[in-house]
Specification:
The protein is mostly helical and 85 residues long. The chain is 53% helix and 0% strand. It has one domain (1-84): ACP-like (Non-ribosomal Peptide Synthetase Peptidyl Carrier Protein, Chain A). It contains 4 helices and no strands. It is globular, with a radius of gyration of 12 Å. Residues 4-83 form the Carrier domain. Keywords: Phosphopantetheine, Phosphoprotein. This is Acyl carrier protein.
Length: 85
């Protein structure tokens, strides 16, 4: 699971062009939106695309994103349980 979390952090940084942030800056349980990384709704769409492209996960209901994208920890758990790639 730790390897998956590191991979997700790298992919989030690359997909969202977070040039000023390193993997070490993102804690597993930090919120991705709001006070954490400060991501917005456009970033959420990018994360949905990332899940589809990299892990073969299609979100049927975009509202699922609110639960899935709470933190790297919640993303990793969801990817581990649902990935097809």
């Amino acid at each position: 699971m730790d390897a998956l979390k590191q991979e997700l952090k790298e992919r989030i940084i690359n997909a969202l062009n977070l040039e000023d942030i390193s993997i070490d800056d993102i804690q597993d349980n930090d919120p991705l939106f709001g006070d954490g990384l400060g991501l917005d709704s456009i970033d959420a769409l990018e994360l949905i695309v990332l899940l589809d492209k990299e892990y073969g996960i299609k979100l049927a209901d975009p509202k699922q994103g609110k639960e899935i994208f709470q933190s790297v920890e919640t993303m990793a758990q969801f990817v581990a349980a649902n990935r097809t790639k």
